[in-house]
Amino acid sequence: MLTLKIKRFQAEREPQGWIDIFSLEPRKGINLLEALLRIQDEQDGTLSFRYSCRGAVCGSCAMKVNGNVVLACRTHVEDLMEKPAFIEPLPYFPVLRDLMVDMSTFFTRYRELEPYLHGEPVSSHQEYFMDEDKRKEIDPYINCILCGICFGVCPAFERDLQYLGPAMLAKAYRFLIDPRDKRSEEILKIVDRQAGVWGCNTVFRCVKFCPKEVPPTHAILKLREKILKHRLSSILPFLSPRHK
Amino acid sequence: MELLSHDVLVIGGGLAGLRAALEAKRMKGHVAILSRVHPLRSHSVAAQGGINAAFGNAPAPVKDTWENHAFDTIKGSDYLADQNAVELMCQEGVERVLEMEHWGTLFSRTEDGKIAQRPFGGTGFPRTCYAADRTGHNLLHALYEQVIGLQIPVYEEWYALSLVVEDGSCIGVLAFDPFKGNIIPIHAKVTILATGGYGRIYLRSTNAVINSGQGCYLAFDAGAPLEDMEFVQFHPTSLSGTNILITEGARGEGGYLLNAKGERFMEHYAPHLMELGPRDIVARSTQTEIDQGRGFDGEYVHLDLRHLGREKIIDRLPGIRQIAMDFAGIDPISEPIPIQPAQHYSMGGIATNGDGETPLTGLFAAGECACVSVHGANRLGGNSLLETIVFGARAGKKAAQKVGTGGTGKNETFFQKCLKALQSGLDEIFGRDGKEPGFLLRDEMKSTMTSQVGIFRRESDLLPAKEKISKLKERLRGIGIKQKRLAFNNELIQYLELEGMLHVAEVIVEGALARKESRGSHFRVDCPKRDDEHWLRHTLAYKTPEGVRLDYKEVTITKYPPKERTY
């Protein structure tokens, strides 16, 4: 028997929220998202949560399960059978209803990056030529599905709610290293602030919890390095012996 | 009454919808997108293997041309595709794919830095451009980024409940904002449906949970015809159990299909193309192996990638490796993947011309919910993504031109009348005290469709299936909804979705019953031959008070006369 303790919130019913316990006999091999859908069908039609692909590619169903932040569709119920599993909404974001959170601040940050290729001019009859090695360098960062899990596990938000966040910094880095994007200083300028790359605690929680193996901390460290090099090269002439 | 208004309203935020919106916006239209999920959660994101365009970038004995692509597509369609539409797609596709690259899609590369291409089914030619095996993800994110750049507004997580039709013209929609619980009329000079497929009417489907075919139903309900709906694509390789897609690219990279005796069984069915036969043939072959007892546990066969080696799997197929590990607990580097056929795609859809226009003035459609028809009776892998961007762009462009010449008018009183009618319909539903839960009906529909309207069809299955769907429609009229508030009313949304799915299912069954031949994906065990004399024609289905009315129209043939299809 699978038992789920689900943190509920429905403003019109109980503004303080409450906890419900649901039990079901799971079919072999099902995942947590399927279990939630069954509860919605059979036990409580008002239970609210987001879903779409059920294959860990769309990023809809991030939530907190026994203290870990995961995609529900990627979580096997076999791993939750031992004791009642505690299901909560994705941390950090305001709750709209039950397990549905308001992700608008997440996408506001996303838009701040101007997250679209500012392309170098190229003939409309051919592609930009790119080395496969270069593609492989960008690829880990482009695999981000913007599910918000890295926000939910990032301790930097405890200090600063305005922090740009791991997914966004990975996205900034993705454009920075793309040879097809003509920006460089512009991108560094967006992230060179306390609420940007300098806000990261470098505890690698985002890297550990990312369901798509995106390494935001690596991007953050590389962005810091580039910023420092940039600063250093701008003050270097004043430090050299000739100026003394 | 709050009445929103746009020149062009696109319903659906997947590839076709976003591409249409972009094009209309670039033509200076006042455009908005309405989508039941955030656009990045659309099912396009799950597309894996790639997108076809005749670049000829990969080494091959002969130079690829768009004409070759067109021929393969037409042959693959079992000659039911409209050849002028296929030619348009294959010709313009090259430019559209380049444009996606210029917008930042991170395609895999050849040694000389060009877009990499792999072989896909039904061609035997490396024509499918890919971004590892996450092509849909890469394309959708790149397009959404462009939408952000052009600041196109999106009504996120809103539903379109019905189209508003005045004097034979679509003048907008009645939309539902589930957060506030409001029904909001939106006037649009042109409405473009881009709502994707209906896979969830089947029990076994690779489709996302959101793929209920709502756009097809909205158009059908408003009087537009649905075309060729009996042609349902079954993908040969879905992960056994969950039915998550395992890309054809896995076979394109050299993967084998093996039965329980360890035989590469495709040599009995498509001796030349083997595993890279077209999907209808490979799906039927796979199901035959399982049905005749040469599968595992009577359920699945193996897709074996082990001989490709670790490096190639990690490099070219990292996404499906992750899926196999996450959802089946196996690593394809060391174990074969258990696979079974599952519903995957709809060749049929809302009838449109090459500019996305439906027979209903003011209403356009693009992508999987539309039928141009470029896929005919069977779609080739890699052509659906291509269709979304080619015909999405064409629909957006034509829509913006229509707006320039006036488009439909904004009649507030008429919207008010429609809103009232919708509300009284909802009041009736809320007033019922039916105790039967809706999910039972939904599950019965799904089982019926998979077991009786699946890969192999016969009249003795289709007749009871028709009866069953019609009974389910009756039972639906007795279903009550416990939750009475409109805000966040999951039950109401599922009820309305089920209503649409039952209508779409009925159209599929009726089309399949009537078509007494076998062509592409539509295989009638009791009529196993293709019959060009009687059935080289498109089915059109109309909604009438008496039920589905079927009509037919000519297939456009340009320069490829129908021939026997062998691989």
Oligomer: heterodimer
Strand content of chain B: 15-25%
Task: Please state the CA-atom Rg of chain B, rounded to the nearest Å.
Answer: 23 Å
Q: What's the pLDDT, averaged over the residues of chain B? A: 96
What key attributes describe this structure?
heterodimer, A: about 240 residues, alpha+beta, Ubiquitin-like (UB roll), Fumarate Reductase Iron-sulfur Protein, Chain B, domain 2, 2 domains, 5-stranded mixed beta sheet, two-stranded antiparallel ribbon, 7 strands, about 35% helix, B: about 575 residues, alpha/beta, 7-stranded mixed beta sheet, 15 helices, 21 strands
What does this structure look like?
By secondary structure, chain A is of the alpha+beta class. Chain A has two domains: 100 residues, Roll (Ubiquitin-like (UB roll)); 133 residues, Alpha-helical ferredoxin (Fumarate Reductase Iron-sulfur Protein, Chain B, domain 2), CATH 1.10.1060. Helices cover 36% and strands 16% of the residues of chain A. Chain A has a five-stranded mixed sheet. Chain A has a two-stranded antiparallel ribbon with strand order 6-7. In chain A, helix 3 runs antiparallel to helix 6 and helix 6 crosses helix 9. The longest helix of chain A has 24 residues. The termini of chain A are far apart. Chain B is of the alpha/beta class. In chain B, 36% of the residues lie in helices and 19% in strands. Chain B has 15 helices and 21 strands. In chain B, strands 1, 2, 6, 7, 8, 9 and 16 form a seven-stranded mixed sheet that branches. In chain B, helix 1 runs parallel beside helix 10, helix 2 packs across helix 3 and helix 3 packs across helix 10. Chain B is globular, with a radius of gyration of 23 Å. The chains are: A alpha+beta (244), B alpha/beta (567). Chains A and B meet through helix 1 and helix 3 of A and helix 3, helix 4, helix 9 and helix 14 of B.
